[in-house]
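Batch queue: ligand-bound targets. Current item pairs a single chain with zinc ion. No template structures supplied; prediction is de novo from sequence plus SMILES. Inputs echoed for audit trail.
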Amino acid sequence: MNAKFLKVSCRDCSNESIIFSRATTAIACGVCGATLTNPAGGKAQLVGCNVVETLE
Ligand SMILES: [Zn+2]
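Prediction returned. Tokens below.
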């Protein structure tokens, strides 16, 4: 499968985080605690962040 890492920016505080595209747990922003992704069907669904860059 095509797993990737994504650099994302929190919509609430703009903090940038690196997340795994197939993360199977919810990931929270390390600064403000907002939920960034929820697991959905074996991949991370982005809920509170925008993708800045895809890291191959
Ligand atoms: Zn944040």
